[in-house]
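User: Here's a structure from my thesis project, written as structure tokens. My advisor, Dr. K., wants to see whether a designed sequence matches the one we expressed. Can you design one independently, without my sequence as a hint?
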């Protein structure tokens, strides 16, 4: 399941804070801040999708993420590779290295990451 851009923005706030009440979430948005009803609607959709849960504390709800940021991001990247690069990590790597203004240092750092992963396997 995927989040909309607005839901991802709110999810990033929750991932950063780990737990938050509605007031905390609203305060974390830059100006112009969304309406409380907008954030409440986003939270409801995210709860329905299984990304967020809450704990009732009196009349307030403390929201928290059910999905780890790393897990969500990993799934998104894998979907991107599957849908746009014919399920080929090589095509993705080729596109990424050629089309994203990476410096020579960035490319060397990537090579080191790949070499380190190869040593682990």
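Assistant: Designed independently from the structure alone:
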């Amino acid at each position: 399941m995927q989040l909309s851009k607005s839901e991802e923005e709110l999810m990033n706030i929750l991932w950063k804070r780990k737990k938050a009440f509605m007031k905390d979430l609203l305060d974390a948005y830059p100006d112009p801040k969304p309406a409380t009803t907008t954030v409440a609607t986003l939270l409801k959709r995210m709860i329905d999708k299984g990304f967020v849960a809450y704990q009732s504390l009196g009349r307030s709800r403390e929201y928290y993420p059910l999905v780890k940021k790393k897990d969500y991001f990993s799934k998104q990247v894998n979907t991107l590779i599957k849908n746009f690069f014919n399920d080929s990590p090589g095509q993705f790597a080729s596109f990424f290295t050629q089309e994203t203004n990476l410096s020579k240092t960035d490319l060397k750092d990537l090579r080191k990451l790949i070499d380190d992963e190869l040593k682990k396997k």
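When you compare it with your expressed construct, this may help: The CA atoms of residues 16 and 69 lie 9 Å apart.
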